[in-house]
Amino acid sequence: MRVVFLCLGLLLFPATAGAQSAGEPGRESGNPNPLKNVYFGEEHMHTRNSFDAFTIGVNQTWDQAYAYAKGEEVKLSTTGEPMQKRTPYDFVAITDHAEYFGVLKEFGNPGSPLADSDFARGIVAGQTDPEAGGPFFKKLLASLFANEPIPEYATQELRTSMWKTFLEAADKHYEPGKFTTLYAYEWTSIPRGANMHRNVFFKDKAADFTYSAFDSVDPKDLWTHLEGLRKRGIDVFAIPHNSNVSNGWMFSENQFQGGPMSKSYARRQAANEPLFEIVQTKGQSDAHPALSPHDEFVDFELFNNLINLPIQADKSRGAFFRQGLATGMYLEKKLGHNPYKMGVVAGADFHSGYQGNEEFGYNGGHGFIDDTPKKRLDPKPGLSGDITALLSSAGTTAVWAEENTREGIWNAMLAKETYGTSGTMIRLRFFGGWGYPADLVNDKDFVQKAYAGGVPMGQDLPKKAGQAPTFAVWALKDPESGNLDRLQIVKVWANPANGLPMEKIHDVAWSDGRKPDPKTGKLPPVGNTVNVKKATYTNKIGDTQLSAVWTDPAFDPATPAAYYVRVLEIPTPRWSTYDSARNGLPLSPHVPATIQERAWSSPIWYTPPEKGS
User: Fold this and answer.
1) What is the domain partition of the chain in residue ranges?
2) Is there a contact between 44 and 93 (Cβ–Cβ < 8 Å)?
3) Whole-number pLDDT of residue 395
4) 3-class SS at 32?
5) Distances (CA, A) of 361 to 77, 413, 517
6) Is-contact 548 508, C-beta < 8 A?
7) Least C-beta-crowded within 10 Å: which of 65, 231, 318, 601?
């Protein structure tokens, strides 16, 4: 069952593709690769151009956000602390909030007419004195929760001009083949406390202005807007995020606050939302212990919702991706369309103008709320009402694309040949087909043959009766992170009798010659080399590369199923442990000292063929 390769060379890739197939970030060649490279990047972050980021002291610009992503040194705007990524990103989408997009930063510009009001001066004062800015920030929040903009700060002229300025900044930093800047923004729908936010992405031509929650908080209306843009020749889609704080609505069996889901609703959601953000600074949305009690690794970066309500098992089935996959297949059987056939991405949602995916380089994600180690490790709730140590470092999106261009990244995302990580840059391939040979991952033409004989992550298996599907999976460690512990394939399906989500987690490859327990079938833990006091670890355990070819032993040809990969690293220090060790501060009592960083692939779906086919 276990196949391990220690060679870091080209064993698993065609010789003609060479190192390009390994998808190393920062590589110089921008040549297209028909077998695809992996590109790592950010799909969700905020600068001073988001209303909430500016009110918490953030003055990081678009230029600085792009510079940081490219590996240049920048300074954190609230403290002046220098920051620099160890491994640059290949692409970035800055997704500032559509509501008051770019406006509030003008309050701090003495030459702007927008700065000349008591409200503007109050917001600016709040950047350094939260108490002074309190009444003005409350007015701002009231307008957002009531979906009633303050008229003078939400004119059509401002919506158009601020968005145009952003597009110009994105174009300035776009280097096709080397660094891609995507046109994007966030639609910030929060009806009744439910986080229903979507990030909106454009291919190579953008709309004239941002569509905001002031226009509508209903996803159906956002879809109508996107459909209208596509009719005009503007390629666009949306990515839902943070379902763990959606109060169970993100993957509900019902349309949003509107009764049972209809066939049209399911079809439109699938057409407009091909991807889902599985992890970000407010925790992971893969699964929860209350819903997946037999998953020994599910207790990872959990986060209660934004209004501090604890996770409730009876409401949470619609708040996590794993259960959403099952719900989607159940709805497809009823309606003919699966609204939740989504690929996987990951992001930051940082409101500090940088992408903090490296645990050892975390500088907080929310302006003056958590911009120093002392604030981040404070055991008491901070200004936001949350315990700041519970915030996670940023996730990272990986896409398998032919080239690092807007078209290349867009096409890969639309095809769902993507995966998300907790920040680490694990390389991951996942294919499904019928009858892959057991030694496929050993073949020098592995990738070429896997494409020819099946489908990559994010796709549907071709219809075939009777035979169980076979999956090929390969992963390579991040050179700057821990070795690999194991590869798992998570199988999800809906109970045919009642539609309830079902799941089974299979260990398919693992490190260090461990043997499963003969009674339970579980692997022993990989071990732990972390020195918590020093925030160090060694790679004396785990493997650099793991792979396997696996066939589902309990395949039921009559039952739809989704399969996705979870890759686990060995334990390494959490960002909070790095902060503690570097600054002589106590460890946070609210979070573990170590984590097992991970990657989640987009699923591969199986749908039974129709009778007689």
Assistant:
1) 3-9+427-606, 104-153
2) yes
3) 98
4) coil
5) 16, 27, 38
6) yes
7) 231
3-class secondary structure, 503: strand
Residue 163, Cα to own-chain centre: how many angstroms?
24
Cα distance between residue 431 and residue 35, in whole Å: 13
User: Whose CA is closest to 324, among 283, 282, 277?
Assistant: 277
Which pLDDT tens digit goes with each residue over 461-482?
Answer: 998 877 899 999 999 999 999 9
Q: How far apart are CA 76 and CA 463, in angstroms?
A: 52
| Mean pLDDT, all residues of the chain | 91
* Closest among 446, 450, 441, 412 to 602, alpha carbons compared: 412
Residue 589 buriedness (CB in 10 A; 0-12 / 13-18 / 19+): exposed
C-alpha pair distances (Å), 83 with each of 404, 424, 477: 25, 18, 24
Distances (CA, A) of 140 to 259, 499, 569: 32, 43, 43
Among 194, 340, 358, CA closest to 261: 340
- Residues 552-569: pLDDT tens digits? 999 999 999 999 999 999
> Beta strand pairing status for 37-42 and 454-456?
unpaired
Nearest of 474, 505, 601 to residue 297 by alpha carbon: 505
Which pLDDT band holds residue 382 (cuts at 50, 70, 90)? confident
What's the pLDDT tens digit per position in 188-233?
998 877 788 999 999 999 999 999 999 999 999 999 999 999 999 9
Report if pTM > 0.90: yes
Q: Give the C-alpha separation, 39 to 93, whole Å.
A: 13
Contacts of 518 (CB under 8 A, 6+ apart): none
Identify the H or E element spanning 471: strand 470-476
Measured distance CA(479)–CA(545) in Å, rounded? 11
d(CA 62, CA 72): 14
Cα maximum dimension of the chain: 73
pLDDT score for 313: 45
Alpha-carbon dihedral sign for residues 291, 293, 296, 299: positive
For 316-326, what is each residue's pLDDT tens digit?
Answer: 678 999 999 99
Sequence-ordered alpha helix ranges (H) in 56-110: 62-69
Q: What is the spatial distance between Cα 23 and Cα 598, in angstroms, rounded to a whole number? A: 18
What is the distance between the alpha carbons of residues 94 and 243, in angstroms, rounded to a whole number? Answer: 20
What is the pLDDT at residue 312? 47
Contact 328, 341 (CB under 8 A): yes
Give me the amino acid identity at 163.
Answer: W
- Report the pLDDT value the prediction gives residue 130, as an integer from 0 to 100: 86
Length of the chain: 613
Nearest one of 541, 588, 594 to 378, comparing CA atoms: 588
Residue pair 489/469 in contact (Cβ under 8 Å)? The answer is: no
DSSP 380: S
For residue range 493-535, what is the model confidence (pLDDT) as tens digits? 999 888 889 999 999 999 999 999 999 999 999 999 999 999 9
- 485's enclosing H/E stretch is strand 484-494
86 Cβ contact partners less than 8 Å away, ≥ 6 residues apart:
358, 360, 361, 480
- Answer with the residue of higher pLDDT: 107 or 314: 107
- pLDDT of the residue at 576: 98
Distance from C-alpha of 347 to C-alpha of 135, rounded to nearest angstrom:
32
Q: How far apart are CA 25 and CA 399, in angstroms?
A: 12
Res. 417: pLDDT tops 70: yes
Phi first, then psi, for residue 401 (nearest 5°) are -130, 155
What ranges make up the beta strands (E) of 87-221?
91-93, 180-182, 184-187, 198-202
